[in-house]
Structures are given as C-alpha cells and as structure tokens.
Design brief:
Elements lengths: L2 H12 L7 E7 L8 H14 L4 E7 L6 H9 L7 E4 L10 E3 L7 H5 L6 H5 L27 E5 L3 H17 L10 H5 L10 E4 L17 E4 L9 H13 L7
Length: 254
C-alpha cells in the first residue's frame, strides 16, 4: 500500500460516518476485456470487504448476450476473497446460473476447475442444463442457492428484465389464487428479485451512467462515478468512493 493510500485508509477508519455495508460495482463486458481486469476485480472485492462492506454485488452489463456464458465461466474461476455466486439473464425466470465459493486451503480450486470427477461438466449444467451448487453443497429454498454469499455477481442481468420477471411471477401467483392482488406491496416485489437487498453505495467507473442496473434495488443508493476507467481502478479510487459516502447525509428519498 502506497503512502497516499495509507493516508486515505486512516481517514476512513477515523471518520465518524459509517462505511457502506453493501457496495455495488457496475462494470461492462468491455471493462473485462482489458489486461488485468479480472485481477482488478479480485482486488476491488478485497478492498470492499477490508473497508467495512459485508456484502458486494458486481453487475457486468453486456451488449452481446452471446458472450454471457463465456464471461460467467471466467467469473466462476475468479480468485475472490470470499464465497460468491454468479447469476445470468435466465436466472430472473428460473434456476440460478451458478454458485461458487472462493478458493481456500482445502483445495477448492481443484473443485472449481473440474477435477478428476467431472465437476466441470456438473458446474456447467450437465446434461439437463441445470447448474449445481458449488457453495459447499448447501441446499437452499426455491432454487436460490448461494444467494446468502457475501459476493454476488450478475452477468447481463438487466434491471428491467429482472423487474419484469418479478411482475410476471406476481401475476402468476395471483392467477393461481395464491396471492391477493390488493395485498401486493413493495416487499412482494423485492422477494421475487434475484438480489432483493438494496446497496448502500453504487460505484460506476469511467462514465456517469448506470446502464440498466438494479432499477428497483438502487433507488435510494448513493451513487459514485469515478473519473478513471476500470483498468486503472486502484485502492485509492475505492477509498475515495467510501470517504465520499461517509461524508454524505443519506435522505432515502426524503
């Protein structure tokens, strides 16, 4: 850590304001094409957890959906500092794309890379096309395995599509007589989203626009746009975002 980074870290730790508990990082498929982009992501996840975040959501927006399987496969191999789950566009309407736990001393790397037992085929959905859990084998209700992982990554999952899928699910429940339409509230919508939790801080590198990110969840989030592109994102840039958040007085729409 450089001297300036250390200075910012001290300012952060001595600050009276609380750091964000849930940080969202918005990047694009083009960002991940740059040399060292995945290493930058691994480091950024580590910085987030180091400086107070309990949960990190990474949204990778894509222009060409055909690249989603490749990006998801590479992201599942990410050297992350904690357990993580990867979701794609199909997860808004059905089973989740993939679950993962970061490599550890127990040899998780071998498990993620397929191993001698054919885990690679299992990880990519097998003959039935259903992705299996890779978070230690823990079962989860209604197919949302691994959603309690501290790091969640979405690839090509736009906020509009996610919200539309939640509305379709609500309509289906009403049609089946399982839900009274007059009783539907915000919680009912949130419960049907892929990631219902609302981020405290959303960081977008290189441009002052969010694309199609978490329309419902980020409505009260604090937004921070960096003046550097993802390939140049450093610890100091993350710390500046956190300090800016700590300086703000959140109003939650009031």
């Amino acid at each position: 850590m450089g001297l300036y980074d250390a200075y910012l870290a001290v300012r952060h730790r001595l600050h009276d304001g609380d750091p964000p508990e849930h940080v969202a990082i918005v990047i694009t498929e083009r960002d991940l094409l740059a040399d060292g982009a995945f290493d930058t992501l691994s480091e950024a996840l580590g910085w987030a957890l180091e400086y107070g975040a309990e949960r990190v959501t990474v949204s990778v927006s894509v222009l060409d959906e055909s690249v989603v399987p490749t990006l998801a496969r590479e992201l599942r191999r990410l050297d992350a500092p904690a357990a993580f789950v990867v979701h794609g566009p199909d997860d808004a309407d059905g089973p989740r794309l993939a679950d993962d736990e970061a490599g550890s001393a127990e040899g998780d790397d071998a498990e993620r890379d397929g191993g001698a037992d054919g885990d690679d085929a299992e990880r990519n959905g097998g003959a039935d096309g259903d992705d299996t859990e890779r978070d230690g084998g823990t079962d989860a209700a209604d197919g949302r395995a691994g959603d309690d992982a501290p790091i969640r990554i979405t690839v090509g999952l736009g906020g509009k599509a996610e919200f539309a899928a939640a509305v379709r699910e609500l309509a289906s429940d009403v049609d089946a007589g399982e839900l009274d339409p007059t009783s539907i509230d915000a919680d009912d919508v949130a419960d049907r989203l892929v990631f219902p939790e609302e981020p405290d801080l959303v960081i977008k590198t290189g441009a002052e626009r969010l694309s199609d990110f978490a329309i419902w969840q980020s409505v009260y989030a604090e937004l921070y746009f960096t003046d550097v592109n993802w390939r140049d994102f450093r610890r100091r840039d993350y710390l500046r975002a956190v300090l800016d958040f700590q300086d703000r007085q959140r109003r939650f729409g009031r």
